[in-house]
Amino acid sequence: MFGQLFRVSTFGESHGGAVGVVVDGCPPMLAISEKEVQKELNRRKPGQSRITTARNEADQVQILSGVFQGKTLGTPILMLVGNTDARSQDYKQMQDLFRPSHADFTYQMKYGIRNWQGGGRSSARETIGRVAAGAIAKKLLKERYKTEILAYVKQVHDLYAEVDSNKVQLKDIEKNIVRCPDAKVAKEMIALIDQVRKQGDSLGGVVEAVARNVPIGWGEPVFDKLEADLAKAMMSLPASKGFEIGSGFSSIMMTGSEHNDPFTLKGNKVKTKSNFSGGVQGGISNGENIVIRTAFKPTATIMKSQETVSVKGKKAILKAKGRHDPCVLPRAVPMVESMIALVLADHALRHEAQCR
Amino acid sequence: MFGQLFRVSTFGESHGGAVGVVVDGCPPMLAISEKEVQKELNRRKPGQSRITTARNEADQVQILSGVFQGKTLGTPILMLVGNTDARSQDYKQMQDLFRPSHADFTYQMKYGIRNWQGGGRSSARETIGRVAAGAIAKKLLKERYKTEILAYVKQVHDLYAEVDSNKVQLKDIEKNIVRCPDAKVAKEMIALIDQVRKQGDSLGGVVEAVARNVPIGWGEPVFDKLEADLAKAMMSLPASKGFEIGSGFSSIMMTGSEHNDPFTLKGNKVKTKSNFSGGVQGGISNGENIVIRTAFKPTATIMKSQETVSVKGKKAILKAKGRHDPCVLPRAVPMVESMIALVLADHALRHEAQCR
Amino acid sequence: MFGQLFRVSTFGESHGGAVGVVVDGCPPMLAISEKEVQKELNRRKPGQSRITTARNEADQVQILSGVFQGKTLGTPILMLVGNTDARSQDYKQMQDLFRPSHADFTYQMKYGIRNWQGGGRSSARETIGRVAAGAIAKKLLKERYKTEILAYVKQVHDLYAEVDSNKVQLKDIEKNIVRCPDAKVAKEMIALIDQVRKQGDSLGGVVEAVARNVPIGWGEPVFDKLEADLAKAMMSLPASKGFEIGSGFSSIMMTGSEHNDPFTLKGNKVKTKSNFSGGVQGGISNGENIVIRTAFKPTATIMKSQETVSVKGKKAILKAKGRHDPCVLPRAVPMVESMIALVLADHALRHEAQCR
Amino acid sequence: MFGQLFRVSTFGESHGGAVGVVVDGCPPMLAISEKEVQKELNRRKPGQSRITTARNEADQVQILSGVFQGKTLGTPILMLVGNTDARSQDYKQMQDLFRPSHADFTYQMKYGIRNWQGGGRSSARETIGRVAAGAIAKKLLKERYKTEILAYVKQVHDLYAEVDSNKVQLKDIEKNIVRCPDAKVAKEMIALIDQVRKQGDSLGGVVEAVARNVPIGWGEPVFDKLEADLAKAMMSLPASKGFEIGSGFSSIMMTGSEHNDPFTLKGNKVKTKSNFSGGVQGGISNGENIVIRTAFKPTATIMKSQETVSVKGKKAILKAKGRHDPCVLPRAVPMVESMIALVLADHALRHEAQCR
Question: B195 at the A interface (CB within 8 A)?
């Protein structure tokens, strides 16, 4: 489960009946439709372009409870997506061999059992529930606070895009299949991924995200700092290896006098001149844009033979088979946005409960 | 509160009665003494060297419940440290002005009130409770699983230490005041901090940490992935701006075939040849060393005049006054170790509950 | 959500897509089938006899995640039951009028919206999820600890059954439609309910339950005492008005020297001579049978005209219409068993986490 | 821990350093003083009259964090009471023998260790933390919503008081040492307790409580029904054996048409003509007075010899020794009020978070 007040539980394995999510604690009277949720799911869906996994799923969502006549009831919202592309023969090899840098080995050791078809619970299909829940959280944030959340691909391997996080718009992001608003670099990224894809290999990179119009005061002083919950959210996504907020790791190269964000006035509003803090100070939003970055490793599902070990404890070679995912980044974009939305919606409600 | 089963609640402001922690859910029959906890607190304590804050506190801990005849009872453990160095006149300026990149402004806006003496709840004194709780978690992990957690300063500004995380020992870390096991670079670090300190300025850097002898199977598949909880733990520490596990941000420069950790056998044990995963796969520990890094910004408390705004909404200059903290890193080391211990102890108990 | 480690979230309104449950935290490798769950759901199902509600639902369960090749995976288990008997025209009156002693008024005031079809979220259909989850909890308890949970109707209105909670068996309970193991009194109960049913009225009563073979040590000392969680579980069931454990309210008529349960030895086992404590002392199970009783009010759904108020704030008469429920007790029996199972399964895991 | 948003953690054993509580999630800017808390603690304190335990403790509270210049900061509030009456020699016998119907046996079996001095964690001293936290919750409820909570002794053994829960005032309750507002029956109660006290025995009874001016809409539809959380709160108190709300167990003797509370209008407000529901419908407050009753068994601490078993597994006789508690009811009154306040404060915040 994720969230204290806006609570989200996903369920489902890659193969088997269905995947989905229960959203509990969403305020009543929020207008929401399957269509709005579907729109976000389509951004996450496999097979949407040649540079992501070729797995083919309709990912059609059904809202089965918690919404009545187009509005939330305040009761748990169940959203369900059936699994249809069950080519489990492709996964036969996975029954016997542990795929390197996947969850096969750790699941087997932890539980003594795993659904070896397509990664089971560790499959990226689990994120369908997150994106569906995120669609509702986004709507809530937008309706109540005009808060807007956007993510985009900032870096693929050594290709680094120039993006102004204060100004970027959704349409800039959706303009190309790699979801990078820097059109020129986007082309290079696509070319590079294509090249690596043909070699059966994969690439990683950085997704940057911005949350704008976040009211002052969200977040908690100690363990549930806003950046702490954002970090957890990002590092709970498959394939993420690093997180930073504001200046992040580059803060190291500055001194305190360079890094501190001076306060100033714009009209009668207190603003900071710079935003190295990334919109959060002392764990609490300060009204500036929240800017975070997440590093995603090159996808583990590749089309090359790899050394491994069998379930029975013998050395083995895992052969290239099935479909691979040359770059998770374009599909990670809606996942990142969704997780940020879940964190912010939860802290919005927590803030109102304690400090209305 | 932090943790689901090994639960920790800290309390206390910088000035005022006391700071401390309640640890709930610690197993019974664990031998623990005030002396053991004190030893860790002394590593965190201000005034321990010229390169950290000069604030002077005894930080003497009392265990007031949950321990009987030297052993834990299984009931909540209260540990308390009184506040003694209450030079609140030093903080008078803080009543009226928001210190840049501190929590003054966000606390005031969130709560409509703040204890302006020495940072109140946002003071690093809050971490006393974490380190005290961490001392117990460390003991539990060591006794039950031989798990060992070590952190050390890996980088200060542009000075980067060479440390073998597989072999480093506590004595190497405690050998110098900057807590960097690379003796040569440590000297340079100290010199650099000294120089910046004299300018009234501050520096940031990276704390790296390793957890060794972590059993296979700790962590959860989805939201409570081990790296997600570690990220939250690190990003909940004051001044942290970034987190990474294993290959972290550098994974971006590799391809999937380079980055995947091949499985192999050592005796009848399944091991990985490389450890880019950082000891966690699919959110669950795989038996390799867990290696994480946390970026800490240059401390916000500097001795230079800064532009700011007053509580009443006027532009103002914050003058250098009181004591500053040229580099938080040496004191962050026990904080990092403690937070890792809290995460691991909690997941150890969760694992035993579900998968014994 | 219910439970800390064995966690259960139900979802669904009476009318609309589906009702069901997500069970999270169930240990892996537990054998469970849809058939086993269905068996319990059939005991809860409406229309099973003339003395309960006539609503007709197949209540066919599907397990859509968390189970693989007949065994739990350790991942969230989704169980779903579709709503089929959607005679929403019967409920048209409910759109405008608040039914006395139902949740119509409070839901409308709390949320500003309600699914007025058949009670929506407040419908007893919600308990389908509980009974499905309870079936899994029961299985876990039986397999691991041989713990057995039985509930039965102890009292209907003024008819009081004689039942030995130490010896009663499931087959005694299932022998008649009122689920009262005292065959003679059961007949009288059925006759009385029949009589009141024909008048369009309803009756309440007491469900008693026993848990046998509960290991010593389950439960927590303070807020999460075993009896506290059992009380919460019972009082969360629709129509419950009172709860007691062991001697319960009758303890009042005894003195301390009469009420204390003397310890004695049976072989080398410590046992109590009497069991006024009801199997729990200081919040923790003591190895004796746990015995609790829950009072259920006469069902609010009756076939008589009643004074009420409309949504628009006018006085009105609610006319008899649709189907009524003369006595909820026989269907409450599996609900009570399920909720006890959820409490015990959760405390079993908590105990193992802290005190293995 | 108790509560989801207004969170309370008590700590402390009967003997040893201290007992107390951390209150987390209390809104900021609430005026609160040690004096106000102390007033409630004095009502709970032992030795306040001859009919309760003679143990002598000052129970002086200190607020050590979370309050600044007389107002809550929104940060965790630590309240501490030292243990002073450490006559541990009185408890020497308890080291070896399990006291019947106390927690000695279950604690020993669960944890393998217990603080045998005066009951340790199971001592009623633990409730100091609850009453201190309750004092803050009461203040919050009164300031924000004018909600008022009163409890009183309704029954001692077979002596039953007449009290109008709609009208009773605090001064009526505090007028006599048994805290029963029916002055005539109160005298008889005191006389009866006196008589039993001289015999070294004890009595139980019923505490009734009313919450007035509870806004409509507090509580949750399913597991966290208001009556479910109230039941848990009451059954978490030491010595409680039963709970009921509104008509409670007596609802059984009514039919549905008698028991349903008809809606009517008072001005433009929807009210119920009767209040068998006890102020809660469908788990949510309906604006009527909330009325609950809790049964407390005769206190287990008596001055008579009792059969028992030793820690080493031998039959033994526990001799009368030390001080006993002839009737817990007068001291249970502030505990009951406090626990109700904690439940209501928590649900108030939850309601505002979701449905403001």
Answer: no
